[in-house]
């Protein structure tokens, strides 16, 4: 298959990639077990469907995701747009990690990532989270040095506020901002998305199907004991039943539109991005090729204005925040979280 492409970024720092990418946290077992051969088989399925934008990070499985990708990319590196990240301490468990945006840490981590990925450059390198102890200008300056060194082609910021994005962009052009954005998680629409549109920065939504809630087969009983989602308020026992009921409304709207719910979620995102005037490449993660096929239905699907309006009402009905800590995401630091 050949998927449509999108140009992320501007000002001489443009990255052309597929409008649908793959978030490779899943191949490190964040949402349930998958062995290395299963992960490699899945990556081949993704490639066969025309998805050539792959997003990973040094902390996904503490290097495991990058290492598996390195094996898969051997002999075909040039066919892919590859993004990875630094800035979260690569140790400990999710929800308990600190940040590190010091230039020496950034320089150290890119070399470790390149070694695991089996390549001498990445197409997009993100600061995964801002470090409150290090000015964003200093961290972005270190990322810019990696561009000069040829180890990185473009740079990005992840879960940064509109103000942080502006400050970083003044040091070096930011090609893409990555944050959570979905029918259920919309805080970025207040400040971050308009800022990206104004500055010509691309946007890369992660968790576009709300960590599985916006799919047809989600069931609370399917969450494994070690599933990372247990750490997120949407999935707390006191919230999950209600939130699954909210998701049921989205499933009904998907059926009316003749789409899988995952496809509906992506179609909604593309429609909203167009309305804001921002270019996006969406990076859902999955362990199953069947799920990818459902996601692909949203790539070119159009939604009626009535459906978009109905979906727009669902975010305010969710219980709990999108993150385990409001300070961990841009909306929390912009005063848009928490919410009951």
TrEMBL record:
This is Aldo/keto reductase. PANTHER family: AFLATOXIN B1 ALDEHYDE REDUCTASE, ALDO-KETO REDUCTASE YAKC [NADP(+)]. The keyword Oxidoreductase applies. InterPro entries: AKR (IPR020471), Aldo-Keto_reductase (IPR050791), NAD(P)_OxRdtase_dom_sf (IPR036812), NADP_OxRdtase_dom (IPR023210). Residues 20-315 form the NADP-dependent oxidoreductase domain. Signal peptide: none annotated. It holds the Pfam family Aldo_ket_red. Transmembrane segments: none annotated. One of its GO terms (cellular component) is cytoplasm. It comes from Nesterenkonia alkaliphila.
């Amino acid at each position: 298959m050949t998927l449509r492409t999108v140009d992320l970024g501007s000002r001489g720092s443009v990255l052309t990639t597929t409008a649908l990418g793959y978030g490779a946290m899943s191949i490190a077992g964040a949402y349930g077990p998958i062995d290395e051969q299963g992960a490699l088989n899945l990556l081949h399925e993704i490639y066969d469907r025309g998805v050539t934008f792959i997003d990973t990070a040094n902390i996904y499985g503490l290097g495991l995701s990058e290492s598996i990708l390195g094996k898969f990319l051997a002999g075909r590196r040039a066919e892919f747009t590859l993004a990875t990240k630094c800035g979260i301490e690569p140790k400990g468990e999710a929800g308990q990690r600190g940040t590190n945006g010091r230039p020496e840490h950034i320089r150290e981590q890119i070399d470790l990532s390149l070694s695991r990925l089996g390549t001498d450059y990445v197409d997009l390198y993100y600061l995964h989270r801002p470090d409150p102890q290090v000015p964003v200008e200093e961290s972005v300056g270190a990322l810019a040095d990696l561009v000069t060194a040829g180890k990185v082609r473009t740079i990005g910021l992840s879960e940064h506020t509109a103000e942080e994005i502006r400050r970083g962009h003044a040091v070096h052009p930011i090609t893409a901002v990555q944050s959570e954005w979905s029918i259920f998680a919309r805080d970025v629409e207040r400040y971050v998305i308009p800022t990206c549109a104004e500055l010509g920065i691309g946007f890369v939504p992660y968790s576009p199907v709300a960590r599985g809630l916006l799919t047809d087969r989600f069931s609370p009983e399917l969450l494994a004991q070690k599933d990372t989602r247990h750490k997120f308020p949407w999935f707390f026992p006191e919230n999950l039943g209600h939130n699954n009921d909210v998701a049921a409304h989205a499933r009904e709207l998907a059926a009316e539109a003749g789409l899988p719910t995952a496809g509906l979620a992506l179609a909604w995102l593309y429609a909203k991005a167009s309305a804001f005037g921002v270019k996006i490449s969406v990076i859902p993660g999955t362990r199953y090729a069947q799920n990818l096929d459902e996601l692909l239905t949203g790539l070119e699907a159009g939604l009626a204005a009535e459906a978009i309006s109905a979906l727009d009402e669902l975010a305010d009905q969710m219980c709990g925040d999108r993150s385990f800590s409001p300070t961990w995401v841009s909306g929390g630091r912009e005063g848009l979280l928490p919410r009951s």
